[in-house]
């Protein structure tokens, strides 16, 4: 009987003969030996076919294998210190499942547009595989972090009639006879859930019809949103810095091979340990003026170059706190000591990756919230349920949203968010 396993599991079978279902990622051959780069989704390992050790038929078959052909391959597992995974397969038998011809992505350089058009195949490559594994580790450790701290996972609706982050970036759709939008953020519904469950989090897709074409913007992206009752602004910052440290340290611990594949400088990630610096918006403006940025005034929002200048001054993510109320959403609690800024913070990642978290304390006073809704021209009837939360035992509460793809891009050290999600939705891309 043959022993069927996976490339990631071969470590348990050193010296034994195993069979693996795999694809031929690449191949090199000399007269007497064929090196097969095998992948099965769990790992990338080399199979070695030696002319004198297999039948002529198997050797010819190995020599003729084309890129991405699927096979069952049998061989003895050997330790190989040069391989990142530590093992190789001394091949004895190969059985073709399906032959692949003219695979479009070859080891040569392809342009980004070409690769994006072939995203359904590009995902198979080593670097993309590594990014998806890191994305998965961030998701896994996120659930672990929040579950360990008693947060309950809540799934807010995707189809809504509210606009937490402003009405200009909404995806509009018909909901039978009514108008509806795709969710920009689950926050408002999480605020209802937190009054039932105390500490909640959601993790789901969110949509922004932003006409931005930058390396940080997606049209559809995944957001991690915790919400905490009886929680004031500074207490929320502590959860944020502990959470971000936790996911970075989890990736360092569990994705060594992937970080190496991507050539990530891990010394920079090792420094990501709570606490993180906090910079008041007023001081951020002063700092930017000292750095020669004459283009920004108190009251303006930061652009990418401003965020990068502030981030470069620190070797950890940095909180920018207390932004002017005029550039933030309606629901943020005013600073009790002055009414021109709100109790909010953006967390800026190092190395130019920009804002990865936006968060705040929420207004918990009924009259103030109602006044804000009116100031922002939001229809009171659509928000009546949200106002209700301030009518029946309202409490201070805070929460935040972490953008998964920006976080994956930063931790992986990749240039653009388009590679941090399996199938990116970009300004000009709905395919594949
Ligand atoms: O700062 P934002 O807009 O905050 C909210 O939506 C709050 N309601 C969250 C909350 O308090 N529960 O978005 C949060 C994060 C940003 O910091 C950024 O990382 C990410 O979501 N993000 C995007 N990521 C990719 N593409 C886009 N177009 C993004 N817009 C926001
Ligand atoms: Mg924001």
What would you note in describing this structure?
By secondary structure, the protein is α+β, with helices and mostly antiparallel strands. The chain is 30% helix and 26% strand. The chain contains 13 helices and 17 strands. An 8-stranded mixed beta sheet has the order 7-11-12-17-16-15-14-13, with helices on both faces. Strands 2-3-4-6-5 form a 5-stranded mixed beta barrel. α4 (126-148) packs across α6 (233-254) and α4 (126-148) crosses α13 (404-412). The chain is elongated and about 85 Å long. The structure holds 4-amino-1,4-dioxobutan-2-aminium adenosine-5'-monophosphate and magnesium ion. Magnesium ion is lined by residues 346, 355, 358.
Q: Give every kind of bound small molecule, once each.
A: 4-amino-1,4-dioxobutan-2-aminium adenosine-5'-monophosphate, magnesium ion
Quote the distance from N terminus to C terminus: 41 Å
**Order of helices and strands, N to C?**
EEEEHEEHHHEEEEHEEHHHEHHEEEHHEH
Rg, nearest Å: 26 Å
Summarize the biggest pleated sheet. 8 strands, mixed
Outline, from the CA principal axes?
elongated
Short note summarizing the structure:
The chain is an alpha+beta fold. The chain contains 13 helices and 17 strands.
């Amino acid at each position: 009987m043959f022993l069927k396993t996976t490339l990631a599991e071969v470590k348990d079978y050193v010296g034994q003969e195993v069979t693996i279902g795999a694809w031929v990622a690449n191949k090199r051959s000399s007269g007497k030996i064929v090196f097969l780069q095998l992948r099965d989704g769990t790992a990338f390992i080399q199979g070695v076919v030696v002319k004198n050790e297999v039948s002529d038929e198997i050797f010819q078959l190995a020599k003729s294998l084309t890129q991405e052909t699927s096979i069952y391959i049998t061989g003895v597992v050997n330790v190989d210190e040069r391989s990142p995974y530590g093992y190789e397969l001394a091949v004895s038998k190969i059985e073709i499942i399906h032959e692949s011809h003219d695979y479009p992505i070859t080891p040569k350089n392809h342009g980004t547009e070409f690769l994006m058009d072939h995203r359904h195949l590009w995902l198979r490559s080593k670097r993309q595989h590594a990014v998806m594994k890191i994305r998965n580790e961030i998701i896994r450790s996120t659930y672990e972090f929040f579950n360990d701290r008693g947060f309950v996972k809540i799934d807010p609706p995707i189809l809504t009639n509210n606009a937490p982050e402003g009405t200009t970036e909404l995806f509009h759709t018909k909901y039978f006879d009514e108008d509806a939008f795709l969710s920009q953020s689950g926050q408002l519904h999480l605020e209802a859930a937190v009054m039932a469950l105390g500490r909640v989090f959601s993790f789901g897709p969110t949509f922004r019809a932003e006409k931005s074409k930058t390396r940080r913007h997606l049209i559809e992206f995944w957001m991690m949103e915790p919400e905490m009752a009886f929680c004031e602004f500074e207490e929320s910052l502590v959860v944020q810095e502990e959470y971000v440290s936790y996911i970075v340290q989890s990736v360092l611990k569990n994705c060594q091979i992937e970080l190496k594949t991507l050539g990530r400088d891990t010394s920079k990630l090792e420094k990501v340990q709570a606490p993180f610096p906090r910079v008041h918006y007023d001081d951020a403006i002063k700092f930017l003026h000292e750095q020669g940025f004459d283009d920004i005034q108190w009251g303006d929002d930061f652009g990418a170059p401003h965020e990068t200048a502030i981030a470069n001054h620190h070797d950890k993510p940095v909180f920018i706190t207390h932004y002017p109320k005029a550039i933030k959403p309606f629901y943020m609690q005013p600073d009790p000591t002055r009414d021109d800024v709100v109790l909010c913070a953006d967390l800026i990642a190092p190395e130019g990756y920009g804002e990865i978290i936006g968060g705040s304390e929420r207004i918990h006073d009924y009259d103030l919230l109602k006044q804000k809704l009116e100031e922002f021209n939001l229809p009171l009837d659509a928000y009546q349920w949200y106002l209700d939360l301030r009518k029946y035992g309202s409490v201070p509460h805070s929460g935040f949203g972490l953008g998964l793809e920006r976080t994956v891009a930063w931790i992986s050290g990749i240039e653009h968010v388009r590679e941090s999600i399996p199938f990116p939705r970009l300004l000009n891309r709905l395919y594949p």
